[in-house]
Amino acid sequence: MKAAKKYWKGLVVVVAAMAMFAWACSSGNGTGSVGGSADEIIEERGLTDEDVAAAVSTYTPSGVLDEYVMFASGGHSGQVFVIGMPSMRLLKTIGVFTPEPWQGWGYGSVAQEEIFASGNAGGQDLAWADTHHPALSETEGDYDGEWLFINDKANARVATIDLRDFETKQFVKNPIALNDHGGTMVTPDTEWIIEGGQYAAPLGWEYAPLESYNDEYKGMVTLWKFDRESGRIDENASFALELPPYWQDLCDAGKLASDGWIVCNSFNTERATGVDPADPENTEPIEAGASANENDYLHVINLEKAAEVAANGGTTEVNGFPVVPLETSIDEGLLYFVPEPKSPHGADVTPDGEYIVVAGKLDPHVTIYSWDKILGAIEAGDLETDEYGVPIIPLDTAKEAQVELGLGPLHTQFDDQGYAYTSLFLDSAIARWKLGDWTLEGSIPVQYNIGHLAAAEGDTVSPDGKYVVALNKWSIDRFFHPGPLYPQNFQLIDVTNVDPDSDTNGMQLLYDMPIGMGEPHYAQIIKADKLEPWAVYPEVGWDPETQSVKADAPQAGNEGVVRDGNNVTVNMTAIRSHFAPERVEVNQGDHVTWNITNVDTSEDATHGFAMPGYNISLSLEPGETQTVEFDATQSGVFTYYCSEFCSALHLEMAGYFLVNSG
Ligand code: CUK
Ligand code: CUA
Question: Whole-model pTM?
Fold first, then answer.
């Protein structure tokens, strides 16, 4: 602790000097400052040395850009948050599974309605989701900044987001399951997107009594094939593996040493359903039944071989989707189990692909499995099997080490100095431990009840270190609480320093960021300069659905209204501060196709198109074209207007839609 104090003293002197200098410069030109000198402000606000060091570590002057961008799951919002780091400024909420009014996401656009419809299940229109795990696309195991995927646990869906315009392009609904969990994770070249299941059910969710659980209920993992050319998941080239009715949990893709394989942890291998099938009178809560055994199973899956088997017709069909039967997986050597201690959570492959880290949840250890040892055991064969015939590699054969970290270990991330970081849910802390030495180095308290944690480039073959973000479920006393539903708390932690004399081993908490939208679960953090988003669409008349110019998009000069029987086509342009045409008249009952192009090409010159009465809200970014289609069922006078304050005469950017009942 002594050394830490000294370290901070030194840093704080430098930092305070910098702050004073900056203040002197700015006050020199007469701008002044609210509280006086930096020293006076520090004193008045009662800030400690550590506070000041933390403040200047994250303070990002106006106009200065962040070094990292974090993509955080939006949880039940069904969206994705884009957050700059280290400033922890929220830059955008990307509309994904839920309509998002500002982006006009899901409020009339024909192309977007098709995307939403493709995600519907069970005859229901879905406008919500429970997003858990975003995954950035990778090239050779490194984030490439091109695509982002995220799963919807509630409805077993995966979305594809294009990072050229940060817009959602696709939903795929899993045809064999209603919920998922171990998704999304990508293979090192983004050939496959993993979507593991969670709560076992008959594949295709057909009715089967719970008494038949052991035979009729199944687990699954689905492998979605990603086609970079088209920028879409190719549903026709995708497949699933049938698994025993254990509750598969978190998956990860192998890399380098373990490339071509995937792993998923599981729980409830007890197959508890709340009722004893042999004695229906005997009920027991699922939570008790599901944590009765000492071990569950790490699933080790040979993806490369499974893909071959699937491609060569080794599948049956469930709801038209190819599924490799469990028997085939066993016969072909696609699936192995390794015991994992007590209700595990999280399976994380180390950057070199040599080890798999599984956290105990109800066990204070993480268990580290050696990839070499697993392969050796598979090669040696002669393995016992579980009740379903799946070969089991003994824990002692596969185990490299166990490290006792604290209570409730969940998820693990990695840095560039050979450290691993594991979230401790029950202890509300992050533990830092050393790979290879398998030693706990220190831990830092977080507030409170951490779930995942995210490290800068932490899922790649070359993590950056520097920052780890704690994604906490609870915030209790950290913020003003707006009613009984509290914000959740993202905490930025500096992990650059290593100081064996401090309790935290040198890790320092820098910043608390309340997230007023829950529950985020996971995030990934990419170096900002790896992203190359467009500032405006490349050409006027751009269709974001196809990422190309739409041949018949309205352009300046060809605006107008065309009638063909009862079909009316409106070709409209938007430019500061004018819609053309400004008057559109149709007859009640006409079918209206309304095309709009924003012909502005300067940065930030977005126009909104809002038409109350017909429930239309679009956001037209520079160059973008959109189409809405509707039947003019309601007669009357409807004013459409621009909903983005685009110019001094923005309020004048409006027009009349007249629906004549005569
Ligand atoms: S799960 Cu939420 S804290 Cu969905 Cu990744 Cu572990
Ligand atoms: Cu266009 Cu306001």
Answer: 0.93
